[in-house]
Design a protein that fits this description.
about 160 residues; mainly alpha; about 45% helix
Amino acid sequence: MLRETVERCPDDIWCSAEHLNSFWQVAYHTLYFAHLYLQPTEAAFRPWKHHQSNAQHEDGIPGPPDPNSTLPLIPEPYTRDEVLAYWNICDEMVDDAVDALNLLDSSSGFSWYKVSKFEHQLINLRHIQHHTAQLADRLRSAADVGIKWVRSGRTNEKA
């Protein structure tokens, strides 16, 4: 569903300043943290090759500015094609990454999350769902674009 929101976002909404965080920022932020939290630990994370690390808030969502930094607050806008390419990378890594996680570990692997690995993955899923819904709502409200619900793909075939 996140991919479909990115694919169907009209050009005039992609970088629109109508919201505090533009469409591209929310989409990139969602993928950045999905990618990060698929890793067993913070130390294991290797950013996407096109990731812009020369910003105070690399995930695209601005927080308080660092008055001592000369870096811009957020990265330059990513294009739709760049975000879709990043989506493909994240999607391709999900099965192997989840299989490699120790969901019984009492630690999330991230110093700022004091929860188990299993609970942390639930948080990751909720984060993706939250922002996907946010973007889908923007599309419906601004351009009357609907996003299809995705199901597992399983069928109830009778033998």
